[in-house]
Amino acid sequence: MRDIATSQTILVVGGGVSGMTAALEAAECGKQVLLVEKSPTLGGRTALLYRYFPKLCHPTCGLEINLRRLKGNRNVRVMTMAEVVRVEGRRGDYSVTLRVAPRFVNENCTACGACAEAVGAEIPNPWNYNLNRMKAAYLPHAMAYPQRYVLDASIAGTPDAEKARTACKYGAIDLEMKEQTLTVSAGAVVWATGWKPYDAAKIQPYGYGRYANVITSVEFERLADPHGPTGGRIVRPSDGKEAKNIAFIQCAGSRDENHLRHCSRICCMASLKHTQFVREAYGEAARSTIYYIDIRAIDRFEDFYRKVRADRTVKFVKSKPARIAEDRASGDVVLHGVDTEGYHRYAAQHDLAVLAIGMETAVPLPQDAEVFPAGCAADALDVNRSVQSSTAAALRAIQVVNRAARAES
Amino acid sequence: MKKEYAFYPGCSSQLRGSASNYLTSVNSMCQTLEVKMTPIPDWNCCGASIGYAGSGELARHVMNARNFALSEKHLPGQDVVATCAACWLGAKETKQKLDASRALMEDTNEALKEAGLRYEAKTEVRHMVEVLIEDIGYEEIRKHVVKPLEGIKFAGYVGCQTNRPFGIAGESFENPMYLDKLVETVGGEALVKYEQKVACCGGALAFSEPDKSQKQIKEIVEAAYDQGADMIVTPCPLCQANVEIYQAEINRKQGTKLDMPVMYYSQLLAVAYGAAPKQAGLDGHVIQPKKLQDIAVKVVPARK
Amino acid sequence: MSAYQGDFLKEVEARVEEGEWVKMCMQCGVCAGSCPFGPHWEHSPQKIFMMIRAGKREEVLTSDAMWMCTSCYNCVVRCPRKLPITQIMHGLATYAHRLGLAPKMQPTRRFSVTFWSNLTRTGRVNELKLVLQVYFRNGFAAGLKEFWNMRRVGLRLLAAKRMNPFELVFPHRCKDAKGIQRMLAKACEIENRKRGFSQ
Amino acid sequence: MKTAAYLCGGCGIAEQLDTARLAAIAEREGKVDLVREHPFLCSAEGVQAIREGIDKDGATHVMLAACSRRAKTEAFYFPDVAVARANLREGVVWIQEKGEAAQEMADDYVRMACAELKRMQVPKAGPDTGKSKRVLVVGGGISGLTAALEAAEAGYEALIVEKEAALGGWAARLHRRIPERAPFKDPAETGVPALVDAVTRNSRIKLQLGTTVAQTAGAPGRFRVTLSNGRTEEVGAIVQASGFSLYDAARLAEFSYGKSPDIVDQAGLEALAKKSIPIRRPSDNKEVKQVVFVQCAGQRDDSGKHLPYCSGHCCATSMKQAMYFKDANPAVDTVVIYTDLRVPGNGEDFYRSAQAKGVTFTKGKVSAVEADGAVKFRDLILDEDTQIKADLVVLATGQVPNSGVNIDNPDEPDANGAKPISILNLEYRQGSDLPRLAHGFSDSHFICFPYETRRTGIYTAGPVRRPMDIAQAVEDATGAALKAIQATENAALGRAAHPRSGDLSFPLVRLDGCTQCKRCTVECPFGAIDEDEKRYPVFNESRCRRCSTCMGACPVRVISFENYSVDSVGAQIKAVGIPDETEEKPRILILACENDAYPALDMAGLQRVKYSAAVRVIPVRCLGSVNQVWVTDALNAGYDGIMLLGCKHGDDYQCHFVRGSALAAERMSKIDDTLKQLALENERVITCEAAITDIARLPRLIDEYAQTIERIGLSPLKGFA
């Protein structure tokens, strides 16, 4: 497999919006790129967002364009379900060890879905943050690329796997697939492994995991999405009741020495956006309250903040709530705290509390080799700045391979 | 092998103190578990969190450091184990502060010199609960049970100072589980959804701000009733005293009929280990723990 | 008067236990919402910190807020800036008391002082004396009345052997009570020197 | 031309459709030379069969009747031939029950693909490819220096044009900068001298100081730039890093700027710090003892008088400046009055560091600064009106972009009231500078594509694009340098830039038919089309993004692309078999934007969402490319309804070609006259906004429209065609 890449190849680790951008920008400059992604599909975390702030446009729209760029550009080679286990070497000459998990489905797959119909087992759906379940033979989501099913490893060796194999008319199910380890060469490595939401259960006073109606902002995003677990209905987990009166709690895990020291940048804007989802769903009956320390609607995001401030269904309280309790009878959440602008104590009852969860680096940078971090692997960034960052990282990678090429010639 | 510790009982748990039955039950429990607790000779008060207005900062640390120094001198190599939440917290805080600041350490030793002592910073400070969980373990605790506390529902009231700011390793501040686990280990029913688990009883302010504290206490007791508790169990002597003693006051002022026994975890273990009511300190309550007494007086067949 | 001159903040930093943390507060208010006695005081911790920065010396030191601290440490474990709020509140209270600015009749202030003097006499707290000292703090008549109200509790405690009149006569004491007192005197002297108190 | 058709039977196609009938249609009606069926076309054998058709049988045009053109792109990759795809899977069998209606749909899709196939060519790059790979950087501040250096490090030549006599720009005026790396605690060296040195010593970078751009003509790969000193330079791409000006604090009358030398803006404070540390106040040269920072001075303004936005860097800048005082003398009182402290990311460490150093922060709204230094404000935490007497006041005013002339309103003064001076002096039909997005900034409108530009090959970087600090500007300039390099590489090969990256087609114009109506030159979203002296359009293909808006605009239909033309779509429309009125079978034409609406329909198929069998869907590059003639042709052909599905337009438009969907909506609003002339109901032609996520909604819209058509009845024009 060493031949799939050379010292002229740019290895991009991570197939989210940052990794795809770095890969495509380099490829469109004429460079050879190997894009490796741990999950079965490209698209990363942005594919799990319903809409972006501040335009309220759809992330899959940009994903579609990037996928089309990718489909038409043979400079990029994509490997999914491939995880980097080791990076060695130096600029111009890296040796990278990849571990490729078995997908149990080969390129014959047409995405017809017969395997999913045949399989009985269900597993939690990580593309909905495990809010619902899906078949153990699955296409991650409608925009998944490669458009190829996956057999979850949990059914390998079970009758379900055999059922899937039998159901496939195209010989696409290959139960003999094994985990592979391979080593590839690269001239430069772009590290675009993205972020993960901070573990909300660690923010104990907010009772995530103890109270059903305390959820995270990424989960809320799935609730609002018509393709999410509720079909886009903003309802609360405990009883499916419409959640009209919602508390959005900022700095859930961020700006906190007990959790993440940094500000995660995106959460204020995400919550401002979420208030508009609530408004769209429930009109004047919507009630959103944002509990904040500072609203960080930086630069021209201020326009969006201004728009939300003008929305009568949205209230702002300068306060980090001290704790959340549950009202047993109604299942409502009760936020206890103090509005510090002047000192007003509250015990505010809401249908649902949404924790604007902090952003944590998903995978640490390699210890032994220098790589170019891009996107949220580099810093807490929004999508726009992630793309900016990965475009810059692409150039840094190009500089290395060009230098190597000049040195060789 | 017998485990040995330097015991720091604290003012309330000493003989004739308001938590003397805590001491009794701890001794009984330790005997079963083969834990040897040797009181630090001539130990002094930790200063408690309420003495601040008179003490200032250094005096408080010096009080604790004196106990450490005595322990190092007379019981070298043994961890200091406190049973009282405030003693443990005060001691631990001092230790942390002194470890972090050389200047404070020097000042402390300068003062200690007046009492002819020196603190070498070797002491570890532990709570009795830590000894149970970390050094002995739930499995070992369970082994000695001869009278499982079947049929008794306990609301585990952890309170503040055994829980914050240090707490028991691996437990959360908002929902620590160890007390419930201890209850279950000795065969009782733990009411894990008890809401006031980590609420504050008012602490020392039960004296100075009785009405405000009694409001807290009332909620703590009522929440236990809500869960159908037979009794409350706690690791803290001040919590125990406040929550038990003031129920009568609350009843008098507000016409309520609170009558909820409040026990120490050590009493539960002692009874489960077969201790007689007196050995388990069950005679030290103003609200009688009827169901526990019933088990304690029951004669069990000798172990096979 | 000009606000936000840092003199008082500097004073607090120099003279109050953990006072150097006051500047680190970012006004999130989590402490204010976490305090079990929150509904009872006038100024929340975070507000006290802001008042200190704003230079409101008189208002801060005469406030009763610090005296409402039950040492439950809820605020401390939740504070996103890890301020040792309990200690700061105690420190402020101590400082206000030392300057004679603390409210005279503040019950916790009086209890705190009583408590400390009680325990330093012998090195250990004499609980019975402490109770009597508290009840009779406002004179004999008032004491008798409180005592009467609490008589049943007292009797039951006596019955449960958790209170013993014996303590009044032959209290628990440290053998080296004298040494302890010398040690505390020294500690006081060092602290006064370091914090710049004239005594 | 040799045509070949391959019909797949997989994924339910063979089960649900009569593929022999489809093959017969391809052969007889489509007149395809070679027709083959395969049960599993995307398999290795299937692909091999196609390959053989091309290599052995010499097929130059290949029609694949299988799945959507978005699917199986790896297998069906035949760049050397023209490929048309009939979408029988997502477009028919996945959305229909088996039956005659589905079969008719499939029949039509095969007819349409055959018709399209014959009107396509494999695009070959045009003659207009410029070969220059040199990058012009306008502006020699940190952004510009970085862009030039990063391009040079990648092996490209760069030319910096700076209007001042020295390099360094705004950053050179700073005493220190906000730290960009851990531990984010102290102000850092600006790094300007080292950067200037590196640029000066780099042999790939040429400098033109004290110079401006007098004229920019041409296109990516062949820009011809005339400088103010008369020199002419050829460059392949441009990075505009023209920076910002500080908002004029004198416009804030209530803050007494100008009335006392001890009230300064952030630039003024930097100058004082450069002059002496500890900082002395201008009025009497005494060391400053109490300084107050007023955040958001003339920013985040709701009144409409000042800057409505936040400049992003000012909170951290004030922290840094407060540290100038604290680091030199901790006894100085430094108070920052803010409403929201905005230091995202690791800026939080810097905030904590400032607090640890004793900088006091207070949430408040400043109402006035008196000339004597009294700062009056509402203390929002303590809930009172109060004041601080300062001996120095720093006003954190915002960034005003140096973005040149507003091409939509050339005389409009900038936010400081200054008469705008063009930066690039573009010799473009559509104006001398880059189009703006908001508040004068030339940012991209697209979240996923921050370097999306409406002037191909010209990229802005740094605070002219969006308010930002130095660290971001460096990152931004590096990204912009990549895009500039990429633009030169694209231009050299005649390839389109994003979003139709790699497309080698370009507008072909039959000038002899042109009526000089100028619609194409006006409507081109990318300013790609100039006019010659006879007012004929001049297409600059490497400026063109292949959206085909010009093609849609052209009333005389003289503009086309090799792989997409009025004819290629028109032929598809005409290829559909329109049943006569007695059959009671309506036909609805859907022209769907290929970026959003078409994928949404595909995904509806993937999820087996059913919708009306009356529709025939044709993907279009953009609704902007829809020529009116398609609509009139379709109506005349007897279609009963036409749906145009395009992206959202308006302020938060999602159209990838900026104005395409808006233009379509405007054009279609005028279709009523046509309908009236044809004596048709208004409902016969509708335009809908669609998003890529409308997987469930679009089928619903389609069915609703089908019901509307049923209600108003079949088109009276049937059978006249």
Please provide a written account of the structure.
- The complex is a heterotetramer of chains A (409), B (304), C (199) and D (721).
- In chain A, the strands form 7 sheets. Chain A has a 5-stranded parallel sheet. Chain A has a 5-stranded parallel sheet with strand order 13-20-14-15-16. In chain A, strands 4-5-10 form a 3-stranded antiparallel sheet, with no helix packed on it.
- In chain A, helix 1 runs parallel beside helix 2 (59-71).
- Chain A has 8 helices and 22 strands.
- Chain A folds into 3 domains: 2-101 and 179-194 and 362-408, FAD/NAD(P)-binding domain; 114-167, no CATH class; 197-359, FAD/NAD(P)-binding domain (3-Layer(bba) Sandwich).
- Chain A has helices spanning 17-27, 59-71, 114-118, 159-167, 217-224, 267-282, 302-309, 383-408, and strands at residues 9-13, 32-36, 76-79, 82-90, 93-100, 122-124, 133-135, 137-138, 150-151, 180-186, 188-191, 195-197, 214-216, 245-252, 287-292, 314-318, 323-326, 333-339, 344-350, 352-357, 359-361, 372-373.
- By secondary structure, chain A is of the alpha/beta class.
- Chain B has a 4-stranded parallel sheet. Chain B has a 4-stranded parallel sheet with strand order 6-5-7-8, sandwiched between helices.
- Chain C starts with 6 loop residues before the first helix and ends with a helix.
- Chain C is 58% helix and 0% strand.
- Chain D is of the alpha/beta class.
- Chain D folds into 4 domains: 1-122, Rossmann fold; 135-246 and 401-493, FAD/NAD(P)-binding domain, CATH 3.50.50; 253-397, FAD/NAD(P)-binding domain, CATH 3.50.50; 564-721, Rossmann fold.
- Chain D is elongated and about 95 Å long.
- Chain D starts with a strand and ends in a 9-residue tail after the last helix.
- The chains are: A alpha/beta (409), B alpha/beta (304), C mainly alpha (199), D alpha/beta (721).
- Chains in contact: A-B, A-C, A-D, B-C, C-D.
- Chains A and D meet through helix 1, helix 2, helix 7 and helix 8 of A and helix 10, helix 11 and helix 15 of D.
